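Annotators were shown the component list below and the corresponding predicted structure, then asked to write short factual statements about the assembly.
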Amino acid sequence: MKIIIENLKKTFGEKVAVDIERYEIKDGEMLGLVGNNGAGKSTLFRLMLDLIKADSGRVLMQPSPEEMADGLAKSDVDVSTTEDWKDWTGAFVDESFLIDYLTPDEYFQFLGRISGRKQEDVDAFLQEFGHFMAGEVAGQKKLIRNLSAGNKQKVGIVGAMLLQPKVLILDEPFNFLDPSSQNAIKHLLQDYNRKTGATILVSSHNLQHTVDICPRIALLEHGVIIRDIENANGEATAELENYFEL
Amino acid sequence: MNKYRLYRLLVEQQELKDKRHPMLEKNRFMKILMWFMVLYYAAILLLMGAMLPMGFSGMYPGVAAFHVMDGFLPWLLLVDFWTRFGLQETPAQQVRQYSILPVRRSFLMNIYLLRTAFSSGNLFWGFMLVPFGAICVLPLLGWGGFLLWLLGWWLLCVADGLCYLFCRALCMKSFLWVLLPLAVHGGIVALMLVPDKNPLDMPCTVMMYEFAKGNLLYIIGAAALIALFYWANYALQMRMVYNEVAKKEEVELKSATQMNYLNRWGTLGEYLKMEIKLRMRNSQVRMQFFVGIGFILFFSVIQYFSDVYSGAFMSSFVCMYDYMVLGMMTLITIMCYEGNYIDGLMARRESIYALLRAKYYFNTAVLIFPFLIVLPLIIAGRSSLWMNLGYLFLTAGVMYPMIFQMAVYNNNTLPLNQKLTGKQGNTMQQIVSMVVLFLPILLEKLLVLVLGDVWGYVALIALGTLGIATHKVWLRNIYTRFMARRYVNMDGFRTSRNS
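Structure shown to annotators:
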């Protein structure tokens, strides 16, 4: 699924949060989004998920010929005018995505069922995340609200991926995670991208992780993508370190 | 910093917290309405205070009117206690935010407890008692008696407030504690209504008279009662602050209910499970439900044992209230709890429509509770079966469609597990609350007047059935309008989420 951003603008009072004339994310691409606090990363994701209203412009999801042949979508989908894109998009931005009075298992079951997935498929899928969840999430009789911040983060990420989306959007997925889990999620995302050809967008303040997994990185400043960095062989490190004055 | 300056600082912060509540900042109408309601109730109390002396003199000739009023002491304290549930916060969570600052926790707790105990709210009954006492206590007992009589009432209100605070704190720990005041107050009500002569009448009258005479024993007794409740509150609230800070709570579910029987409903079944778990696992939501049931039980007991509500208007009103109260308590704020996880819901196709359907089915099914509670009244012939069926169907098919409209306009997130104060709510919520309290009565009276008793209620049932049969149509309409307003609503939910 290709994503096209056209003339997208969002301001909060005088402050410009997002101002992108045109930007395309190719089908099956893994894009890293980096920038300082207030650069507009989360706002851009919220605009892409139709959670806030753009002042102008639009976000289009453009299915590939194969996806069109599969009946996923017939043409470009503007996220603000239809709900079709919700069938193939998984996302975790913050805790407001979690129904915190459910246990993780209940939450996964809920997501699985409302997406029309069989329980066996959900269970099989969750098994792939066994290492990532480290026995502290699935099978627990704890409500999500009683989990640690890191385990909540895991529930959100697994929940987003459980839907086996064509577009996966994760805001700061490495936050709160221990080093093992950070590495585990890196591998899981790369594997998922390789196996399914899904388009994945990840924002992070962790430059190393972003550089490790994303062949392309967009650098945001005051809502504007100021650099579009090719990173097929990890060459973005120097440019990012220079920008962030590390 | 000396203790007085620290006190002033904390009070200022508390006032800022109230003043800057997002719902009040956004909603000028709400501010005006709050003041209007305060003035409205103050005016009603003033009027009662001025009229009751004459009324009592007519009803009980030869008895001083203030003795009659003193006999109503338990009723007034009961009303005082239960109205506090919607208006008064507990101090434990107010203290939590200062717990790691270099301020003694005991000092903070004492400040908040004293502010709560001696808040101006405890003087509100004065709008009725001052004019009442001025008319019938002052001429008989002079200024000293009048002021001491008022002091007695005020001391008992303070004790009642602290008693409420203690029960409220217990309810925050476990909703089952709500049974304690319900049982005690139910017992008191039964004691006052069941015997031919109210056995509490004389002791209350004597006690208030002794206050008025300045009997130190009684004044010290009331002060001791306040001190006892204060101490109990202090001990309980301090432990609750510790639990808050240490996050010491039961985190393991004893059993995670599967509710597999709902699987046959597919996606809708999942939203039904979610709705049921919302009610079961979140103290604030659970509390609303049980307070609603408590109200129905309370009115039913009174109806069963007395003729207070046997008049044509009051019997209709109580019957309507029995069916409406649960919906009014939980559906006026529809979607406000979902504001906590609205982004997750909005990321799924038509999830709000499925959620609205689940809420409708759940709330309609829940109407069986008031029906079962009033069934003994129907069997005993103290409430009409037709009237009950009429209001049951009217609620599900006419009033619910009206209240569900709030899903389009509500955009203030309510905390799932913390206290509710009287400050949440928006303009539409207030208007709809008023409409749903009076429209059913008007409709019923009109239909019964035109069609007669039985056919009037049959018409109500028919209207309700029509609403129930077309629920998918009007729920779809609400969903469509919700989606048209989604950006405004999501912004509101986000802004108010952690305030």
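Statements collected:
1. The longest strand of chain A covers residues 2-12.
2. The two ends of chain A are 35 Å apart (CA to CA).
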